[in-house]
Every structure is written in C-alpha cells, then in structure tokens.
Design a protein that fits this description.
CATH topology: Rossmann fold
CATH class: Alpha Beta
Structural class: mainly alpha
Radius of gyration: 22 Å
Strand order of the largest sheet: 5-4-1-2-3-6
Strand content: 5-15%
CATH architecture: 3-Layer(aba) Sandwich
Largest sheet: 6 strands, parallel
C-alpha cells in the first residue's frame, strides 16, 4: 500500500446563506421522540414490506445490494474497522474482482487523541488482508464533528433535524462520493440484537437449555398477552433521562413499553415487524435525504428489505444466535478469524458532545422544545455536566436550530479536488462549505 499526504487548502469560503426552497427536508421527529432521543413505534403496514419466504440466502441478498452499489462508482464504504463495516467491505471487494467492477474504496474517520474511537490496528489488518490500495482517511480535529459543530451546522441548516443525530458525520465522506455510492453498516446492530434476544424461542426449539424456573419465567413472559407484557415493560422502565418532566417520563415509559410489547413471538416475525419500526424507516429516509443532496446513492445492505427478509427466513423462529453467530454466517467466508471473533467496539460520544455543545448549552435561550415533556433547566444542567449522554443529542440540535434559525453556518474551508489518491489522508474541515443549491 502506498501512502501520500494531500495538501489541505485553508482558503475560507463565503458564509453559507439559509437553505433555499430546493433544500431537502429531513423526516420529522415527533415531540416525544425528540424528548426521549429515539424514534418510537411503527409505521402502518403496507403490502410492499417484502415477501414472506424469499428464495435467496442472506449472503446472496447482501451480494445483490453490494453489486448495485459497486455498479455506481466511485463506491465508497464507510469503514470504521468494526465487524459490520469490515464484512461489507470484504464482500464488496470480493464481488468487484469477480464482476470486473471498480474496487470499493474504504473511507475512515481518524480521531487523534481519542482512545475510545481508536481502531487503527483493526482497520489496517482488514485493508491489508483484502489487498486494497485505495484507502481515504479523514483526520478530524477536536470539536470538528460536534453535534452543533461546523460540519453539523451545514447539515442542520440545509435539512433540519435528521436521524440519527450523528448522521452529519457522513457529510465529509459523502462529498468524496459525488455521483457515486456510499455503503453504510446501518442495521447490523439492530438485526443482531433481535436475534440475540430471541432466548425464549431458542428454548422452545431446544437450541438453548434452562432450569425449570428460568424456563417457566422466560416462556411465560414471551407467550403472555401483549397487554400484560406492556405492563411488565412499563414497570421495568428505568431509563436515565433526567431532563424529562413527570409528564414526559410517563409518556416515554408508556410509549417504549408499547413498542417492546408489540414484538411477536418468533425471530422471523420480530424482524419483519422491525422493518416497519420508525427507528429504521426514519434512519433510512434521513440517509437518502443527505445522500441525494450530494448526488450520492446510499446503500445500507444490512437494513435492506431483501436482506432482512432473507435473514428472517434463515433464522426462523429461534433466530441466528448471538452477534458472533450472525457475523460468521454473513461474512465468515471473507473476513479473517481475528476480525470475526473480536468483541470490542469504538465509541464516538466524546466527539459528538464536546466543547462546542457545552458552549452552546451555556448560552441557550431555553426555548424551542416542548416544555410539557422537557424541563429546560434540567436539560441545560445535563448538557453542562460530565454525564451528558447520546439520547440528548437530538434535543441539542433542535435547540440550536431554534436559536439560530436566521443565522448562517460558520465559515469553512474549500474542499480539495475530488480525487482518490492511495491512502489519502485529509482533514474533515476541508468539507465545511455550502452544499450546492438545487442539488
């Protein structure tokens, strides 16, 4: 692998004016979803959610999705070094060789000095194993990818709130993929969690053993009427959301309990319902909006309908087991054993809620949020504490949008030319500029 260092222009560009009417708005979050920090519930059912019994395997379904992405070059893969992004990159590299298509280009964000986000050893292992020469690495300065930092402000001004609230972190990557495609690993954690949680189902088909008491309690709860399970979930709800009012906390408890209780018995049925979860549909809609503004087609294969249908059919009632089992099923033929077996996962919370967030919180007007659900003073105290948490991020951005509704995003830097030099390393700030109007 060759390595080169790209020059980073420092010339400032004019301030970005407020978005024009051609700007693409993101999907709307409901007030309670904003207060809790996640979309809740499910979209109405529709026939187009997909077939009940697909005829392809999960790997074949993944290959179809990745082949479509590779057919729209440049095909960039958002690559953190985790198992999902590594597996998707490896499978895309294999397909590109088999089909004679341009190789996928891994794109990695580097966070110098942040040990929680450090995955360089895993990243290098995967790229070398795959024999890829082109690897774009974007170095992030401290605070640059804060939830209300310079990159986030460009995206918020153009699209309003997107979900998840850290979606703006894809913006520097998307600028490198203009006219092409970007593959993300969204959906992998959610599918794996549903499979791992299907413990009662594994007990029924005797894939897992349990004592008599455990068996009775686990199966009794899983097979109880939905209304009784909702009561139990309400009693179990103890989320740390200190900014909620009493009314807000009660509403959050009821809504999350109803969502949890809605999942039926059987992994395959759970996964088919999950296709309608607002968490999934809002995330995919936001990705599409952000990609379309830069002429990039987004692919999230692990959350694609055909792939989820194939995984549901393969898993059946008991599911595919735990996280490692699913990774081996999907990527066992293309990833080295050490990567398949890893358990660690990077965290980017320190990058998202940094000094820019604290600075804004200190001067926030206290307006712009539903005060029936959110206590502004408690929320400000949370943002100013050392315990600020990810679920408060969407509220932070909503508050920032309210207080900056007529102001412009900050001055940024001109981007470097859109080339893909081998092992290129750049600065995220190079991308903070006005998205093209009408795109």
């Amino acid at each position: 692998m060759k390595q080169s260092q790209a020059a980073v222009p420092q010339a400032a560009v004019p301030q970005v004016p407020p978005p024009e009417s051609s700007s693409l708005p993101g999907p709307a979050l409901r007030p309670l979803e904003l207060a809790v920090g996640t979309p809740l519930g499910f979209d109405p059912p529709r026939q187009a959610w997909g077939p009940t019994h697909p005829t392809v395997s999960p790997v074949a379904a993944l290959e179809d999705e990745l082949s479509a992405a590779l057919a729209r070059p440049p095909c960039l893969v958002s690559f953190s070094g985790g198992r999902d992004s590594s597996g998707l990159l490896a499978l895309a590299a294999k397909l590109s060789r088999e089909k004679g298509l341009p190789a996928p280009i891994p794109v990695t964000m580097l966070f110098p000095g942040d040990s929680a986000a450090e995955e360089s050893e895993w990243q290098t292992t995967v790229v070398r194993e795959l024999g890829l020469d082109d690897w774009v690495r974007i170095e992030v300065r401290q605070g640059e990818l804060d939830a209300v930092g310079p990159v986030a402000q460009v995206v918020l001004k153009r699209h309003g709130l997107l979900w998840p609230p850290n979606l703006y972190m894809h913006y520097p990557i998307l600028r490198r993929a203009r006219g092409g495609s970007l593959v993300t690993g969204f959906g992998g954690d959610e599918v794996a969690q549903l499979s791992a949680s299907a413990r009662a189902e594994r007990l029924v088909v005797r894939q897992q053993r349990a004592g008599a008491t455990d068996l009775l309690v686990t199966l009794g709860f899983a097979l109880a009427p939905k209304a009784l399970r909702a009561v139990a979930y309400r009693l179990r709800f103890h989320e740390e959301l200190p900014w909620l009012t009493e009314e807000g906390y009660a509403a959050a408890r009821a809504a999350t309990a109803a969502e949890s209780a809605a999942y039926p018995f059987g992994f395959d049925r759970k996964l088919r319902l999950a296709k309608r979860s607002r968490y999934r549909t809002t995330s995919l809609a936001s990705l599409e909006v952000l990609g379309a503004s830069l002429d990039v087609q987004l692919f999230s294969p692990l959350a694609a309908d055909p792939v989820m249908d194939a995984i549901a059919a393969k898993g059946g009632i008991p599911g595919l087991g735990y996280r490692a089992d699913m990774v081996r099923l999907l990527f066992g033929g293309v990833l080295p054993p050490a990567v398949l077996a890893r358990r660690s996962k990077a965290s980017f919370t320190a990058q998202i809620l940094s000094e820019a967030s604290v600075s804004f919180a200190a001067q926030w007007s206290g307006e712009g949020l539903d005060k029936g659900l959110v206590d502004p003073q408690k929320l400000r105290e949370h943002w100013l504490s050392d315990q600020r948490s990810a679920p408060s991020t969407a509220l932070l951005q909503a508050a920032w949008l309210h207080d900056n509704s007529t102001s412009a995003p900050p001055v940024g830097h001109q981007p470097p030319s859109a080339s893909h030099a081998p092992m290129k390393q750049e600065m995220a700030g190079s991308y903070v500029e006005e998205p093209p109007s009408g795109s």
